[in-house]
């Protein structure tokens, strides 16, 4: 089982950083992950892809560049994972 903490984030349009923890609750299988963003102009993620070993966690940094808010439209980041 893979979990993400926090489950949702908000970053001000003025910019900022948020850290996420991607945790692998499986004791036997490592997982691969890849992050995609619908707004690459204002958002950066590091690392974009990687592996989470069994019972371990990976830290992911989400960076919001300074820029105008998109009104009611939100950038939606997509996190995909699978066993490797």
UniProtKB/TrEMBL annotation:
It comes from the Eukaryota. Residues 74-84 have a biased composition (Basic and acidic residues). Residues 63-84 are annotated as: Disordered. Pfam families: Motile_Sperm. Residues 1-84 form the MSP domain. InterPro entries: Ig-like_fold, MSP_dom, PapD-like_sf, Sperm-specific_class_P. Gene3D superfamilies: Immunoglobulins. This is MSP domain-containing protein. It comes from Meloidogyne graminicola.
